[in-house]
Amino acid sequence: MTRFYFFALLTLILSFGCATYYEQNYKLQSLITSGQIEAADKLLDKDKKGEEGKDRVLYFYNRGTVAHMNGQYEKSNTYFTKADYYVEDFRKSLGSEALALISNPMTKPYKPEDFEAVMAHYYMALNYIYLKNYEGALVECRRMNIQLQTLNDKYKKNKNKYSDDAFAHTLMGLIYEASGDYNNAFIAYRNALDVYESDYKDLFLMSAPLQLKKDILRTAKRIGFFSELDFYERKFNMKCEEEDPENGYLVLFWMNGFGPVKAEWSINFVNTGYDDGWITFANEEHGLSFPIYIGNKSRNEQNAFADLSMLRVAFPKYVERKTVFHKARINANGESYPLEMAENINAIAFQCLKDRMAREIANSIMRLATKKAMEAAARNENENLGAIVSIVNAMTEKADTRNWQSLPHSISYARIPLPEGTHQVDLQASGQANSTVPLEFNITKGQTTFFAFHHLESQQAASRY
């Protein structure tokens, strides 16, 4: 049996290098971040194993993103739908689970971080908006929070602190209002405010955008909720602004830079004792202690586990790709409108991984302890074989550094009233560099025009972390 594991692990050495997923896919990410979208699409086309491989969810996420950037909105939604199938119907493979136990988690099919599964519906909602299908867009907005809650309900402990998405409610309100459903728009805006104030303020240091407050006041007045209007005017210390009925509206989403990438870090755990079938590994520096039950194993295996003195376990970590631009505004019709952050995807990513690691750290310790016990068993059988297994274990001890790397760092927005007609507007971004992007929109009286712009400029993560 030991020899079987040895040959399985030796095969893995040939399959996995020491490069992170970011480094392995640097060419694709470079094409996307530099705006070479057609070339990125062709590169993905060449990946014949992408649809069937263990990274297929990421493959479909990338295909969906690239198709969206190319203006192929129906095609984009087809790819995101395929990805969503694997999120909702994620099946564990006994083979991949066993292989991961003696190697590392990257041998398993990729299961997206919860926020990644949610953000796929944001892109699908945008696609439906561009296709003039507001009902389809609203369905995707609802699915953002439904899926987030469904995923979180599965966790028995250490649930995600990111359990409701304020931006999803905001987007839903904007779409409801654009479709003339002011009652549901008010409800969605109010729900967004609740999440900003209850969750986002403490978790992500984000306050509710001023635009959202204006939206709440405007829709409350529009549907005749005057007691609610009075309440929120006093709460916000502001009055509802009058709108010109001859105007149309531009809602512009600004996607800034790119989200973080995963790297690897490790932590030492010391064996603090074996008692009645339980072995406990602890790290005093981080205040961590994890008892693991090994009483159901053979006597030799129990002895091998009990003899372990220390483990060094690899975990994933996020590395931020800092933004080049720190703020932006729209100059239109002689007025200037700031783009306010509504979603900090970078901060959400760090929080989600922190919560997940709290749930999965015991499994990681068990995985490495199993590898070390195998090493001890092999050494008892043959000293040279034990030394080889030790080398194999070291080479295969890797964290899962896969993630969806074409997501933006953050999303900001503005709702701009404009007279009917064709308008030239400027999107001005500033920070470490300055940028002015001229845009043209044809505005219709009483109608809302949606547009999303992605500034691709972003600081690159280091090739080594």
Structural write-up:
The chain is an alpha+beta fold. It contains 16 helices and 12 strands. The protein has a 4-stranded mixed sheet. It has a 4-stranded antiparallel sheet with strand order 4-3-2-5. The longest helix is centred in the C-terminal third of the chain and has 37 residues. The two termini are 37 Å apart. About 6% of the residues have low confidence.
Arithmetic mean pLDDT: 86
Give the proportion of residues in helices.
40-55%
Q: Please, how many helices?
A: 16
Overall body shape: elongated
Instruction: Please state how the strands of the largest beta sheet are arranged side by side.
Output: 8-9-1-12
Which helices and strands occur, and which strands form pairs?
Blueprint: H1 2-15, H2 21-24, H3 26-33, H4 37-46, H5 56-69, H6 73-88, H7 94-101, H8 114-130, H9 134-153, H10 166-178, H11 182-203, H12 210-222, H13 226-236, E1 247-256, E2 261-275, E3 278-283, E4 288-293, H14 299-306, E5 310-319, E6 325-332, E7 335-338, E8 340-343, H15 345-381, H16 383-396, E9 410-419, E10 421-431, E11 434-443, E12 448-455
Parallel strand pairs: 1-12
Antiparallel strand pairs: 1-9, 2-3, 2-5, 3-4, 6-7, 6-10, 8-9, 10-11
